Amino acid sequence: MPLKITFLILLITVLQPILQAKQSNIYRPNKDHALFFAIQDYQKWTDLRNPISDAEAIAKELRNNYDFQTEVVRNPTRQQIYAKLNEYLRKSYASDGQLFIFFSGHGHFNDGTAEGFFIPRDAAANDPFQDTYIPHTRLERIIDQIPCPHILLNIDACFSGTFDADIALNKDFNRPGAGNNTDTWRRAFIRRKLEYKSRIYITSGGKERTSDGLRYSPFTEKMLEGLRNFGGDDGILTNNELLVYMEKANPTPRSGQFGSHEPGGSFLFISTLSQPGREALVREPIAQRPTEQINAQPGGEYEMRGNTMIDLRDRTEYTTQMMKDGNRWMASNLNYATSAESHCFNNQPANCNKYGRLYSWEAALQACPEGWHLPSDREWREMAKEYGGADDDASDDGKAAYSALIRGGESEFAAQLGGLLSFTGGYGAMNVFGLYWSSTAQGDDYVWDYAFNSIYGKLYRRNSHKAGTRSVRCIQD
Question: Which one is predicted more confidently, 85 or 242?
Answer without folding.
Answer: 85
